[in-house]
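Lab notebook, bench 4. Still working through the backlog of constructs that have no structural model yet. Next entry is a single chain of 180 residues. Request: give me the structure tokens for it.
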Amino acid sequence: MSDATPLMTQYQSIKDDYPDEVLFFRLGDFYEMFNEDAVEVSRLLNLTLTHRGDSPMCGIPYHASKIYISRLLRLGKRIAICEQIGEVAKGKGLTERKVVEVITPGTAVDEEYLEQTVHNYLVAISSVKIGKEQNMSFAAIDISTGDFLATSWNYTQNSISLPREIGRLQPKEILISNEL
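Model written out:
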């Protein structure tokens, strides 16, 4: 990006730190998305795809952002909210920005992001050796209600127990340890 504008250089620097999230990049009264994020979000939310220079771009009004974030969370997307934290430049220079929040389907707590009659479980799965036996550990939390559940079973029961627990809880997000 050697010919990129200072704004796009700033955007790319922040996006590099959040490659797996859709970056909501604050520009005045809008959150803008660029490049792959813009293409994907415009398709998922039926938004108009435009361009800034050679970069695909789409945006949403700041005041309506929770509606769009909610829709993306329901589609399993992770969102990084990047705000203007410095003084807004009066026609000169670049406003400082940083990510102030990352929202994932399992960590959403704002009422606007949640389905009122459905738990919002975040599940963690890991394998642990207890004595000579290999066990599967399974924990679930709904941080919007404080519900916490945990269990484990012998690894040989995994083909029955894991699908049963996932089916029973219907988690919004699953974290799996690297060894699995």
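Notes after review: The CA atoms of residues 50 and 57 lie 5 Å apart. The radius of gyration is 20 Å. Flag for follow-up if needed.
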